[in-house]
From TrEMBL:
Family annotation (PANTHER family): CHLORIDE CHANNEL PROTEIN CLC-E (PTHR43427)
Protein name: Chloride channel protein, CIC family
Keyword Repeat: no
InterPro entries assigned: CBS_dom, Cl-channel_core, ClC, ClC-type_chloride_channel
Gene Ontology CC: chloride channel complex
Species, as recorded: Litoreibacter ascidiaceicola
Keyword Nucleotide-binding carried by entry: no
Domain of life assignment: Bacteria
This protein's UniProt keywords: CBS domain, Chloride, Chloride channel, Ion channel, Ion transport, Membrane, Transmembrane, Transmembrane helix, Transport
Bilayer disposition of the protein: Multi-pass membrane protein
Domain CBS: 500-562
Length: 568
C-alpha cells in the first residue's frame, strides 16, 4: 500500500502530458485554420469555378458537334450517324470531309505556327514543363478545328480536344491570379477532371484521369480541389443529359471468373497488341504524311483536305468509321455485330483514325480506342464462346473488357480507364474481368511504346517525359540563367575560357542543362565557357561560364521541389 501514491503521481503526470499535448495540437490547428484556411477555401472556390467553366466548355463542344453534324448529314441522332449517312448521295459523302478538311486546314494555318492540332500530349507537356500552362491561341484554334473534323466525317474522339480546351481555361485563370507552378498544375488538373467528367458523366474517373495522366502523381494537396472540379463537371453533364450512362449493356453480363480467368488474361495480351498496332499505325501514317507533304511541296493547309478525301471514299462503303463511333461501340457491347463485322470494322477504324490523325484534322484517340477495344473484345469473345461454349460467358462481357483494355493501353492509364468503363456502362459486377484484361494489356503495351500514346507523341518531338522528372528537369533550365557571368566573384579565368574555346569547347547561352551535362561528362571539365559565335571573321562574345557544380545544384533543387510537390 505504501508504494501506491508514487503510482498515482505517475498516472497524473501522464494524463497532464497528454492534456498539454492535446491543447498544443488544438492551438496549432487553430493557427493553421486562421492563417492558411481562408486561402485554402478560396482556392477551392476557384477550383469550383474552373470546374464549372471546363464542364460548360465540354458541354458546348459536344452540343456543337451534334448541331453541325445534324445540319451537314441531316442526322437527328449522332449515335446512329451511319444510318443517316447511307441516305446521303455518295459524292456528298466524299465532299463533306474534304470541305471540312479545307476549313480545318485554313484555321490551323492561320492560328498555329506549325499547323498541328493541340491535344492531351500538349497538356501533359504544359503540366510538366510550363507550370501548368498551355498555348491559348493555338488551343482555341485546335478546338474549332476538332469540332469541324468530328462534324464532317473525321474519325477521331472528342475527349482530347475537350481536355486541351479545359487546359486553355485554366491557363487563362492562372495568368489572371498569377499562379505559381504548383497552383498552376493543380488548376490544370481541376480543369481536366471537370472536362473528362462532363464528357463521360464519370466523376471518379475524371478526377483520377487528371491525377494519373496529366499531373502524373497523386499528391494529397491536389486531390480535394480536383474532386470538387470533377463533381462540378459531372453536375453540368447531368443537368444537360440526365443521370444516364453512355452505353446500355444487356443484363446477362455475368462471369464465372475462375473458369474464364485464362481467357481474360489472353484477351488482355491481345488487346495490348491491338493497342500497339493502333498507336504505331497512327505514327506510321504521320511519317508517311510528312514525307508526302515534303515530296510534293503540298501547302500545310491542304493536308487535312487530302485526308478527308480518303476518309470520304472509305465512308461510301463503311459509314461506321465516321465521327466518334459511339453507335458502333454500343452495338459491339450489346452483341449486335457478327464476328466478321467486328474484325472488319476494327481494322477499318484503325486505318481511319490513322488517316485522320496523320492528316492533322483534329480530335483525340480516346473514343476510337474504346471502339476498337469493344470490337476486339467482341471478336475474341465470339471465338472463345464458340470454342468453349460450356464454360464461356457472354460475348458482350469480352467486348466490355476489351474496350477497357485497349483504351487503358493507349492512354497509359489503367486506373482511370477501368473506372471510366465502369461509369460509362454502370456495370460493376464484371469489374474483375475488366481489371484482369486492363492490367495485362497495359503491362504489355507500355513495354512496346514509351508508356502511352501521349508520351510517345512527346518523345517523337524530343520531349522526354516518359522516364519521369529525372529525365526532363534538365531541359527546363537555360544555360544563361545558371551560368556565372564575368562579374561573378568566383568567375572562371578569362585565359582558361579562351583556351577552351580554341579547342571548340563552349555552349550557347540559350542551350539547356540537358545539352550541357553530356559536355561535362565527355570533357571532364569543371566549367564550360558560355559564348555566342560572331559573324565570319569576328571573335566570339564571351558571356561567362557554366560550372558543373552549379548545374548539379540547380538539378538537385528541382528534383527536391518535384518530390516535395508529389508527396505533399
Amino acid at each position: 500500500m505504501a508504494e501506491q501514491p508514487p503510482q498515482n503521481d505517475e498516472d497524473r503526470g501522464f494524463i497532464r502530458d497528454q492534456v498539454t499535448t492535446g491543447l498544443s495540437e488544438l492551438r496549432r490547428a487553430f493557427h493553421v485554420l486562421r492563417h492558411r484556411g481562408p486561402s485554402q477555401v478560396q482556392f477551392w472556390f476557384i477550383a469550383l469555378l474552373v470546374g464549372i467553366a471546363a464542364g460548360l466548355a465540354a458541354l458546348l463542344f459536344r452540343k456543337g458537334i451534334s448541331i453541325i453534324q445534324g445540319v451537314v448529314y441531316n442526322s437527328k441522332d449522332v449515335r446512329a450517324l451511319q444510318e443517316f449517312v447511307t441516305d446521303v448521295d455518295w459524292y456528298w459523302i466524299v465532299l463533306i470531309p474534304i470541305m471540312g478538311g479545307l476549313l480545318t486546314g485554313w484555321i490551323l494555318h492561320l492560328f498555329t505556327d506549325d499547323g498541328r492540332v493541340r491535344s492531351v500530349a500538349d497538356v501533359i507537356e504544359g503540366s510538366a514543363l510550363y507550370d501548368g500552362r498551355v498555348e491559348k491561341r493555338a488551343g482555341l484554334a485546335s478546338a474549332a478545328a476538332s469540332i469541324i473534323t468530328l462534324s464532317t466525317g473525321g474519325s477521331s474522339g472528342r475527349e482530347g480536344p475537350v481536355v486541351h480546351l479545359a487546359a486553355v481555361i485554366s491557363s487563362w485563370v492562372c495568368g489572371l491570379i498569377k499562379a505559381n507552378g504548383i497552383t498552376g498544375r493543380d488548376l490544370l488538373g481541376c480543369a481536366v477532371a471537370a472536362a473528362v467528367s462532363a464528357s463521360f458523366n464519370a466523376p471518379i474517373a475524371g478526377a483520377l484521369f487528371a491525377l494519373e495522366v496529366v499531373l502524373r502523381h497523386f499528391a494529397v494537396h491536389a486531390f480535394a480541389p480536383i474532386v470538387i472540379a470533377s463533381v462540378a463537371g459531372t453536375v453540368i453533364n447531368r443537368l444537360a443529359f440526365g443521370d444516364v450512362t453512355e452505353f446500355i449493356l444487356p443484363v446477362n453480363t455475368t462471369l464465372d471468373f475462375y473458369v474464364e480467368l485464362p481467357a481474360f488474361l489472353m484477351l488482355g495480351l491481345v488487346c495490348g497488341l491491338v493497342a500497339v498496332a493502333l498507336m504505331r499505325a497512327i505514327f506510321w501514317a504521320e511519317d508517311v504524311g510528312n514525307h508526302v507533304q515534303t515530296l510534293t511541296r503540298m501547302p500545310r493547309w491542304l493536308r487535312p483536305a487530302c485526308a478527308g478525301g480518303l476518309l470520304g471514299v472509305m465512308a461510301i462503303w463503311f459509314p461506321h468509321i465516321i465521327g466518334v463511333g459511339y453507335g458502333t461501340t454500343s452495338a459491339a457491347l450489346t452483341g449486335e455485330l457478327l464476328l466478321h463485322e467486328a474484325i472488319i470494322f476494327a481494322i477499318l477504324k484503325v486505318a481511319a483514325v490513322a488517316i485522320t490523325m496523320a492528316g492533322r484534322m483534329g480530335g483525340g484517340v480516346f473514343s476510337p480506342s474504346l471502339m476498337v477495344g469493344a470490337l476486339t473484345g467482341l471478336a475474341f469473345g465470339g471465338i472463345a464462346t464458340s470454342v468453349f461454349p460450356n464454360v464461356s460467358g457472354s460475348e458482350t462481357l469480352y467486348a466490355l473488357a476489351g474496350m477497357g483494355a485497349v483504351a487503358a493501353a493507349v492512354l497509359g492509364a489503367p486506373i482511370s480507364t477501368t473506372l471510366i468503363v465502369f461509369e460509362l456502362t454502370g456495370d460493376w459486377q464484371t469489374g474483375l474481368a475488366v481489371m484482369v484484361a486492363v492490367s495485362l494489356s497495359t503491362a504489355l503495351a507500355s513495354r512496346l511504346v514509351d508508356r502511352s500514346f501521349f508520351l510517345t507523341q512527346l518523345e517523337r518531338r524530343d520531349v522526354h517525359l516518359a522516364a519521369g522528372p529525372q529525365a526532363y528537369l534538365l531541359s527546363m533550365f537555360r544555360v544563361r540563367n545558371v551560368m556565372r557571368d564575368e562579374d561573378h566573384p568566383h568567375a572562371a579565368a578569362e585565359d582558361d575560357i579562351w583556351a577552351m574555346i580554341e579547342q571548340g569547347i563552349y555552349i550557347d547561352p540559350n542551350a539547356t542543362l540537358e545539352d550541357a551535362m553530356p559536355l561535362f561528362e565527355r570533357n571532364n571539365d569543371v566549367f564550360i565557357p558560355v559564348a555566342t559565335m560572331g559573324e565570319e571573321g569576328k571573335p566570339p562574345t564571351i558571356l561567362g561560364a557554366l560550372f558543373q557544380v552549379d548545374a548539379l545544384k540547380q538539378y538537385n533543387r528541382a528534383l527536391a521541389a518535384t518530390a516535395a510537390e508529389e508527396h505533399s
